[in-house]
Design brief:
The chain is α/β, with parallel strands linked by helices and about 240 residues long. Helix content is about 40%, strand content about 25%. It is built from six helices and eleven strands. Helix 3 packs across helix 4 and helix 4 packs across helix 6. It is globular and about 65 Å long. It starts with a strand and ends with a helix.
Length: about 240
């Protein structure tokens, strides 16, 4: 992995180059603000640096989105009534209510209700909501798998299992050796059609474990509007996570 830097709009942009057997030069800005370029061994460094410079405005815009996300998760959330939380692409207000019975979180009539014994215990409230999100994620992601798997079944892809965990740098990963699709728990905050895009993207990796022309041809044929779904995921959803 090669580390490099360019200057754009009087700002230094650090990026890494990963040499892979791919036909195109690909650029990714990850949620941890790492900028990664993939290219094959034959692409000159000068071409890659010019390519990164040409994408300078887009890079800074996306890095700015991810910077907005970082402080919100830890410092601004108090888990009190009136705060909004995203679920399946929409914002919902939280209602915190004291209970002497089992602590739980429920979604009902456009609100997220949290029943907790100590309404002042922020860490407990955060844990309860996280557990609720993960439970919903496991259910929703498997429903997406049921919708998307028939599209790739005819290509000889064996149906994988779904696992959920928090990931900083990607929405999903195809663990081909384990026949498993790993999905970011934060994806539950995206619309279902965006979740379907990520699931299908990872399923296609069981056929083409790269981002080659064959991979994208299959993605385009099975989901012609995938770029619109990805744009919504990257440009709108991530800003509100």
């Amino acid at each position: 992995m090669e580390k490099h830097q360019i200057e754009y709009a009087n700002r230094a942009i650090d990026f890494v180059i990963k040499r892979k057997k791919v036909k195109n030069v690909n650029l990714h800005v990850k949620p941890d603000m790492t900028i990664e370029v993939t290219a094959n061994d034959r692409v000159p460094l000068e071409f890659i640096t010019d390519f990164v410079k040409s994408k300078g405005s887009w890079i800074l815009k996306n890095v700015g989105h991810f910077k907005e996300v970082q402080p919100l998760k830890q410092s601004e959330r108090e888990y009190v009534s009136g705060e909004t939380f995203k679920y399946l692409g929409k914002q919902y207000r939280l209602r915190v209510q004291k209970t002497t019975e089992e602590e739980t979180v429920k979604y009902f009539r456009g609100f997220i209700y949290m029943y907790v014994k100590d309404t002042e215990n922020r860490s407990r409230k955060a844990k309860l909501l996280d557990e609720w999100y993960r439970e919903k994620a496991q259910l929703t992601f498997n429903e997406s798998l049921e919708r998307m798997y028939p599209l790739v079944q005819k290509y000889g892809v064996e149906k994988p299992s779904i696992d959920v965990r928090l990931m900083k740098a990607r929405w999903g990963s195809a663990l081909t050796e384990k026949n498993m699709v790993l999905l970011n728990s934060e994806l539950i905050k995206a619309p279902k059609y965006c979740i379907d895009y990520v699931v299908l993207h990872e399923l296609i990796h069981f056929k083409y474990n790269d981002h080659s022309d064959n991979f994208y041809q299959m993605l385009f044929s099975l989901m012609p509007d995938w770029e619109k779904r990805k744009a919504i995921l990257d440009e709108e959803v991530v800003k509100d996570l």
